[in-house]
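Cont'd.
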Amino acid sequence: RKEVEQDPGPFNVPEGATVAFNCTYSNSASQSFFWYRQDCRKEPKLLMSVYSSGNEDGRFTAQLNRASQYISLLIRDSKLSDSATYLCVVSRVEYGNKLVFGAGTILRVKS
Amino acid sequence: GAGVSQSPSNKVTEKGKDVELRCDPISGHTALYWYRQSLGQGLEFLIYFQGNSAPDKSGLPSDRFSAERTGGSVSTLTIQRTQQEDSAVYLCASSLRRTGQGGKYEQYFGPGTRLTVT
């Protein structure tokens, strides 16, 4: 079993739609949680960190459920430019914060 | 400010040759990581440097892989006797290690080096 599991998609949604991605992690000792975005043939870029209290950045909302070891990302009012692969990422301080990546979820927003 | 830079951006080499990949982290970032992303695969950790501490090499796939970080800044990843399965994008990331409760260690990635072994 992979340490971080994501639905690979693709999620095909129309512009303006709301879409949610889920991710589960297997190591309960994980301490830091992130969503990265990766465009085709580009490097991953940090989208947002995920906090236990949940956090929002514009159209993006991230939630963390430590009890269920579950992370989510909600995108409202999808734009064409949101089309990308979204990577769920966890890390632990005692392991030098090296990132453990999920395989990614592909989002395609269509007009 | 300047982000993480990597060179070369693309490298094509023949099987059996050695290659060196370079990473310049963000100025002031004390932690530096190497990852690789093979075609159709997720990113996997290779090696981690933090300040003057011994590097964490636990992700290196074989002894053909090595890395060093000189002066706490620039890092070089060396692959000896390259094999076709080494073909991948090699990504470097750096972070500013923060202390304190709930401190976050966001890592910022360079554009990567696309290595093709023929």
